[in-house]
Amino acid sequence: MKRYKSHPAHAFTILELLAAIVVMSVISVTLMPVMSAASESYTVSRQVRSSTERAGFAIDRILRVIREAPIGTDNSGVGITSATSSSVEFSDGSGLQLTGTTLEMLVPGSSPVPLCFDVELFEIQYFADDGVTSSSLTPSTTHRFGIKLTTDNVTMSAVVFPRVWIGQE
Q1: What pTM, to 2 d.p., does this model score?
Q2: How is 78-118 classified by DSSP, letter by letter?
Q3: Number of structural domains found in the chain
Q4: What is the chain's pLDDT, residue by residue, as a tens digit (169 residues)?
């Protein structure tokens, strides 16, 4: 009579397979909210970064336009032809204006160029040489401009001095 040696089984039992499925299911259910939150966080941060970059670009261009403002017609002061709280136009045709929700840069001899879309607030303040007194009634005496821009819940503000005053006083 021959005796056969029994070999140990190398396959999973159904119980081990079910236990593995349950463990994997618990891990999956636990990780799903984490993955969903990470995806949502990435989307929000990407939108904020995009809005911040757009607002930063617009503020940079605004500051350049104002800094390079032309000298007035009598060779003193800033050459401003019109000034409101949401627009400024200089004697050379350059300037800035808010049209609806689009901030535009005025380019001499050309149509306005959009700087920023979906603008919620664009505000220009005009200050005299003491830095406190408003010069909105006499904009050519403006020594300092205060700028505030809000787009997609991102607010940026800056102060800029036009270069025309260098050497005038």
Answers
A1: 0.76
A2: B-EEEE-SSEEEETTS-EEEEETTEEEEE-TTS--EEEESS
A3: 1
A4: 666 666 666 777 889 889 999 999 999 999 999 999 999 999 999 999 999 999 999 999 999 999 999 998 877 789 999 999 999 999 999 999 999 999 999 999 999 999 999 999 999 999 998 989 998 888 988 999 999 999 998 999 999 999 887 766 5
Q: Which of 122, 115, 60 is nearest to 86 (CA)?
A: 122
**40 falls within a domain:** no
The DSSP symbol for 120 reads: E
Give Cα 117 distance to the centre of its chain: 10
User: 94-115: b or e for each residue (b if 16 or more CB lie within 10 Å)?
Assistant: bbbbbeeeebbbbeeeeeeeeb
Residue 120 lies inside a defined structural domain of this protein: yes
Contact 165, 65 (CB under 8 A): no
- Give the closest residue to 105 by CA, choosing from 91, 120, 124, 88: 88
Q: Report how far apart, in Å, the C-alpha atoms of 123 and of each of 87, 101, 120, 147, 169 are.
A: 8, 13, 10, 6, 28
Is 117 inside any structural domain?
Answer: yes
* Encoded amino acid at 68, one letter: E
